[in-house]
Amino acid sequence: MKAVLDFCLIFLTLHTPGVLSLSTHVAIIYPQDPVLLMGSNLTASCWVHPDLGVHASSLFWTLNGQQLPTSLYRVLSPTNLSVTLAGLNASRQTSGDNLVCHNHKGHILAGSCLYVGMPPEKPVNLTCWSRNTKDLTCSWAPGGRGETNISTQYTLKYKLRWYGKEKECEDYTHTQPYSCSITRDLHLFTPYEIWVEASNQLGRATSDVITLDILDVVTTDPPSGVTVSRVGQLEDQLSVRWEAPPALKDFLFQAKYQIRYRLEDSQDWKVMDDVGNQTSCRLAGLRPGTVYFVQVRCNPVGIYGSRKAGIWSEWSHPTAASTPHSERLMSGSCDSKSSGDSNSTLRRELKQFFGWVRKHAYGCSSMSMKLYDQWRVLMQKSHKARNQVLQGDKS
To answer: Does the entry feature the keyword RNA-binding, yes or no (predicted)?
Structure first.
């Protein structure tokens, strides 16, 4: 708060033209820099030194640069002018609102900063996670109406549940205003009690206490070495491979993975949840001749026997690949309706069989994948040969 008061004083003395030095004590405002509840009333007085030769009736007040109506003034003596403000609104900024006393020429005689707000409410949504078991980061949100309009300090506190000494987190991040990371003296296999305290000059509040074991809230770095490649000439498939997060290679856990992919010209991701703990996957049912972006993320499940699922990592950097162009699309051919009933029946039966295989071989399941690959190659060769015959008949 001292730094804020210093800022307010510097603002009044340096950034306004015609300022008289406060060190000469030509004028004083009382109360000086008060902290008030929203909706409060305030009567402030501006006292000028008799040697200045200025009568109080010639003075005027401004609040944040706006002159206040004379109806709010009261001349208490030849050297004392008061102003009464009713139902104060919250301060526009945490550095306070500037209440200033001027002489008749507009020169500043004295100033005061008003801090109008609310006591903090109980912080909420306290959540913690550990990246690769090397730290413990917690985030939270201000309670109720949010910020209190005056400077509020948040302190993350923690201790080992049964025998620990209460400690305060020290590494507060600037990118996330309500978060802090504990980076040393962490204990595994022992639950922690964690809470947040909020305080300002009008009061204090404490969040609910959460209890957790670091092994239950582990998240990893995203999977590395993600590659996406074609599956031969199969125009509707791509193969995805990746490496497990290296930071947890010495830990006992079984990771599970998710994959998401989207078209190059789309922002809609399709997520595959059935990847399991393998580090490769086949995407099927894709559009031929199309660029896809693919990402992978990891969840460390059951580290050292923990019964709780871990926390999903961030997604890996997008990796792009394209499916091969379809021979059917390139030839511009279509099914002939003069092939006869026998060919129509055969096509219908093949379509049903293809649908069954595709259903059971879709995604990352290894079931019937070899049969599916063989079938797709056979179908593509059959279409290609048939298209060549049709092209020959037309010529």
So the answer is: no
Cα-flanking dihedrals φ and ψ of residue 13, to 5°? Answer: -90, -20
Residue 158 and residue 80 in one domain: no
Residue after which a domain boundary falls, among 99, 117, 135: 117
Which residue range forms the structural domain that includes residue 154?
124-216
Residue 260 burial class via C-beta count within 10 angstroms: exposed 0-12, middle 13-18, buried 19 and up:
middle
Q: Which pair of tokens denotes residue 2?
A: 């001292």
> What does DSSP say about strands 218-219 and 124-131: parallel, antiparallel, or unpaired?
parallel
385 near 378, Cβ under 8 Å?
A: no
Two structure tokens written together for 178 = 């309500």
**What pLDDT sits at residue 347?**
52
Same domain? 238 vs 188 = no
* Tens-place pLDDT, residues 208-242: 999 998 888 988 889 999 999 999 888 899 999 99
